């Protein structure tokens, strides 16, 4: 469409023949159109780095390439928004899990507090081991004993009452090495991944072997993940009427273990949709990663490998906590992304400079 010369056309141009002035108008319009069409490309080229705490390595490229592929309309790997589900393990994937899981610290502190009202525990296994040795005593307790400790420290109350107890503990408890609240020991690079995925239409879920109500107490504040998007191990609940009010009460029996092969089951029961991306750090996440990645089409499986003893911890095959052996081998065989914390992360914690 020809743009007419406006009344404010320079007088010098008015002396130019009309045919030439017409060409001038067309050229100006073409330049304007070309400039406007180039703006989105320039804006995209100057867009901020979505993962600024990551070094420019293969892990970062894998994550960004995956998100761009599944969110670009017309891409052969495009996934509709309602199918964009990403699952994240918690301990060792989103925050520190050494020297023991955070919930282990909580259970020990709560047992010692409760022991004052239960004198027989001082001579009764497995409680006496914790009463006398504290956190060190956990290493000498078998699975049955641990279940017993979890039972007495996590039951006999309503879910809101339990959440309040966890909140109070988190407000005062500090990690023995870093001397900081546990909620300050989240991984900054992973917080960026969560935000990046959500900005691109993903629903982000925590799928943890830890207690679901324990993690729900802080997940929204720490990660921006609401309680209904947390899947974890559960203890049994019962419904009761108390003072004419309906209540749920936590029992001292395990209902479901959301670890290892339990994670795909928990995902199916809790989400009802297969993830297209999964992040873990241990053999307890193996089946979740397999369930996600080996479903055909383009999928993303990420293993966070703890390799930085100076800034955090270095452990894998020989560690009792966060044991990473079979999943590390599977990652190499199946071309999952393995994040080398020491090499891939510029910073680890939000408070680092």
Automatic annotation (TrEMBL):
Name under which the protein is recorded: Haloacid dehalogenase
Coiled-coil features, chain-numbered ranges: none
Origin species: Labrys miyagiensis
Pfam families: HAD
Matches recorded under Gene3D superfamilies: HAD superfamily/HAD-like
Domain of life of the source: Bacteria
Membrane-spanning segments: none
Phylogenetic classification of the source organism: Bacteria, Pseudomonadati, Pseudomonadota, Alphaproteobacteria, Hyphomicrobiales
